[in-house]
Amino acid sequence: MAPYRSLDHIVIRAKAAEPLYALFGEAFGLPVSWPLQHSGFASFGWVNVGNTNLEIWAAASNADLPSDVPLPLVQGLALDPEDLQAGIAGLAQRGIECKAPKAFRTQKDDGTLVDNFTNSVVLDVSSDACCVFFCAWGAEDTIYPWKEKLDALQRKARDEAMFARCAGGALGLVGLAQVRLAVPDVPTAERAWRALTGSQQTPIALTPDIALHVVAGARGIETIESLTFGVRSLAEARAFLSARHWLEGSAPDELVLARSACEGLDLRFVEVPA
Which of 100, 102, 118, 185 has the most CB atoms around it within 10 Å of its CB? Predict the structure, then answer.
């Protein structure tokens, strides 16, 4: 059994946040779960894709990333733990090491500090180019732009309701369906991911509705190569993308979004039941 409830969000590092934010939020008509925000350290925004959120992050500095890994990059998988400490302890029993939890704090009007969220990196499945981490949100201590006091499950329900109202947007999106992870050592990576997820399936079940495909990669570190999204109708999605010249490849069972439309990312679409 996995020590987390869902994939809370995916971090996409980009040179600029606006193009991908506009692609998913405007062109694809998907609901914004965090409006685009600009600060001294980064520009970022979230768009909901049904069963998770895409956090599009353009940092002021990318010195934390390997110099030979270009942007944009699917760089982070944030897991929602039911109980952070219990999850870390449970993984330790499986031989999976986590970093000490680190809280992100902000100051309230009265000067007191509150924990908005707490992260803990799952070291055995992470690299400098692919960070897999627990992200435990505080229920009482909200963060801009979320003014309402919602815990992770309540926020997920709110996002699901917004996604249902948009009916999957222009593509008829159902949700994220597959993550393709390139690794230098497939057997070692698969053992670690199976220990993390508790899945013995092939491909590994990251969540009940998201498959993790672990493949041999050319680089010496783990990198996420592609994201595949499920749509209700491949024919309708093909028509939408073709009309905008946004198709790079088309097969009977898969569409590949033109890299010119998504800043060079490898994004794909398959038909899945709604």
Answer: 118
Instruction: Give dist(CA 272, CA 171) in Å, integer.
Output: 13
The CATH classification number of 6-271 equals: 3.10.180.10
Largest CA distance in the chain: 59
Domain boundaries, the chain: 6-271
pLDDT at residue 142, as a whole number = 57
Tell me which of 140 and 105 has the higher pLDDT: 105
Kindly report the pTM of this predicted structure.
0.95
Do the Cβ atoms of 101 and 77 come closer than 8 Å?
no
pLDDT for res 114: 77
pLDDT per position as a tens digit, 129-147: 999 999 998 766 556 566 6
